[in-house]
């Protein structure tokens, strides 16, 4: 747990982009007197107050003028009605004298005159005319100066009050760097829409605005909150760690004692103010930790897989070498056994005696030949898997290849009571070892004959495409289930008792065919269903067109 001094947090934030020159400039601004432009800044609220005051004073002045004129006219009408009543009975030659005598009773009237019917009265602002019967028209006037002076005085007072109110609003003192009310309301609206804790501070660390998420995160209750107090609340919850800092932002992580993690991001604003963003990244941290553990486990498993793969390859290589050496070492004594059995069968050096010895010798010879063929097959597979037996690359016509296989196994298929058919040729040419490809297809056909009951059918077909050739060998034999199909990828796999017939051998035919197909650049796939039959598909890459033309020529 660290204090605010240790974390580098002060009243002006964590020091975002601060250098010594910035501190000097800020100190100079603090010591210098405020100018009118910075101290009394005309804000939108001040302008609104000034405009409202001016409009109110103008409306008051207009109303006062209208009311004053109306009062003067009403007073003149009342006085005029009284004067007209006084002079109504006077003779025409004494009407003017009676008028002057009657007007003297009203101090506000400055001029009164009678105008005949033919006379014209000049309009005036403070003049009122009334009909005087036989005496013509009565015109009364009051002094303009008092009325105008009163209107001007009251208007001046109204405009003075409006200006004073504007000055009071414009020249009010706010804390240094504190925005006005409208700006704070805009900040509050913006902060409320942000889905994380947000707080804006002045240059001196006074809170401008913050949203509810920030208050809930720091458990703030009072309105007057300083930045230093907020930092203390954060640091008291755990350990503060600096993640990154530049002239535009400063990012810290707060690791709480309860396992939580807060991301604190501080960014500068105008006039030395700054904002603080607080977000909870506890779940993200846990996810990152879990992903890191998973990646480490994956690396560990990959390393173990690589080691086990190397061990498996080494074991397979050792097995192949062992089989090759074993096959080679056994073939020599088997040749001797077969040779001696042949001599004994022909009784080269005299009769054997008992007739049963001839049957024993024949069994020894046939068993030896069977063992020799089996070990020869094992040696071939070992050489193919070990890469010690190279296959030639020559153009091979697929139709001729299949025709030779049909000619080779037709008799065997007839003896087994099977129908052996070859579909129409495809005319494709592949590049490979002719004898190897014949052995590959022959092994599959031999298995099909062996495991197809009488009256069954075996079909050979080839299909050509632009990028390769597919050879299919289909039978209607006993078929295989998925478990048996999976075991065919391993050599020496014979399966259950159904496959343990006489003369079956070590079960390397499919393995050798698969090895030849892969060494020729192709693949071998098997599809089978019990009691329905098996289809073996061998895909081989086709030769280039010009090479095909050369072979055809």
TrEMBL record:
Pfam families: HATPase_c, HisKA. The chain crosses the membrane at residues 45-63, 151-171. Residues 325-544 form the Histidine kinase domain. It catalyses: ATP + protein L-histidine = ADP + protein N-phospho-L-histidine. Keywords: Kinase, Membrane, Phosphoprotein, Transferase, Transmembrane, Transmembrane helix. The keyword Phosphoprotein applies. It is an enzyme of class 2 (transferase). InterPro entries: HATPase_C_sf, HATPase_dom, His_kinase_dom, HisK_dim/P_dom, HisK_dim/P_sf, Sig_transdc_His_kin-like_C. The keyword Signal does not apply. Its EC number is 2.7.13.3. This is histidine kinase.
């Amino acid at each position: 747990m660290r204090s605010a001094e240790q974390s580098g947090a002060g009243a002006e934030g964590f020091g975002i982009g601060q250098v010594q020159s910035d501190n000097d400039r800020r100190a100079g601004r603090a010591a210098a007197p405020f100018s009118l432009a910075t101290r009394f800044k005309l804000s939108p609220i001040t302008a609104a107050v000034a405009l409202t005051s001016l409009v109110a004073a103008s409306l008051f002045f207009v109303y006062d003028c209208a009311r004053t004129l109306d009062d003067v006219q009403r007073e003149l009408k009342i006085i005029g009605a009284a004067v007209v009543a006084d002079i109504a009975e006077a003779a025409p030659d004494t009407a003017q004298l009676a008028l002057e005598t009657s007007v003297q009773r009203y101090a506000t009237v400055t001029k009164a005159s009678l105008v005949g019917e033919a006379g014209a009265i000049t309009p005036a602002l403070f003049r009122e005319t009334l009909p005087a019967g036989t005496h013509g028209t009565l015109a009364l006037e009051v002094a303009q100066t008092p009325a105008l002076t009163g209107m001007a005085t009251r208007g001046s007072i109204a405009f003075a009050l409006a200006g004073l109110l504007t000055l009071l609003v414009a020249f009010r003192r706010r804390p240094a760097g504190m925005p006005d009310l409208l700006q704070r309301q805009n900040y509050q609206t913006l902060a409320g829409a942000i889905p994380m804790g947000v707080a804006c501070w002045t240059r001196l660390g006074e809170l401008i605005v913050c949203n509810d998420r920030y208050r809930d995160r720091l458990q703030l209750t009072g309105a007057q909150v300083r930045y230093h107090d907020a930092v203390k609340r954060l640091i008291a919850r755990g350990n503060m760690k600096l993640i990154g800092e530049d002239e535009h932002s400063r990012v810290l992580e707060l690791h709480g004692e309860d396992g939580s993690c807060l991301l604190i991001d501080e960014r500068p604003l105008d006039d030395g103010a700054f904002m603080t963003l607080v977000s909870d990244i506890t779940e993200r941290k846990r996810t990152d930790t879990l992903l890191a553990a998973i990646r480490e486990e994956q690396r560990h498993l990959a390393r173990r897989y690589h080691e086990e793969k190397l061990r498996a390859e080494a074991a397979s290589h050792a097995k192949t070498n062992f089989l090759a050496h074993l096959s080679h070492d056994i073939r020599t004594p088997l040749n001797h056994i077969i040779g001696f059995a042949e001599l004994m069968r022909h009784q080269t050096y005299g009769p054997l005696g008992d007739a049963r010895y001839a049957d024993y010798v024949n069994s020894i010879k046939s068993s030896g030949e069977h063992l020799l063929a089996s070990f020869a097959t094992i040696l071939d597979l070992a050489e193919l898997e070990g890469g010690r037996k190279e296959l030639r690359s020559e153009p091979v016509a697929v139709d001729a290849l299949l025709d030779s296989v049909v000619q080779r196994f037709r008799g065997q298929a007839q003896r087994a009571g099977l129908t052996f058919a070859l579909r129409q040729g495809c005319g494709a040419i592949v590049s490979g070892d002719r004898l190897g490809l014949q052995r590959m297809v022959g092994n599959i056909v031999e298995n099909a004959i062996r495991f197809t009951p009488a009256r069954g059918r075996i079909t050979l077909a080839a299909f050509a495409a632009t990028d390769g050739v597919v050879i299919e060998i289909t039978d209607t034999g006993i078929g295989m289930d998925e478990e048996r199909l999976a075991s065919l990828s391993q050599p020496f796999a014979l399966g259950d008792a159904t496959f343990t017939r006489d003369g079956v051998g070590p079960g390397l035919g499919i393995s050798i065919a698969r090895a030849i197909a892969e060494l020729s650049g192709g693949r071998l796939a098997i599809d089978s269903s019990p009691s329905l039959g098996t289809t073996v598909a061998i895909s081989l890459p086709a030769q280039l067109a010009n090479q095909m033309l050369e072979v055809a020529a």
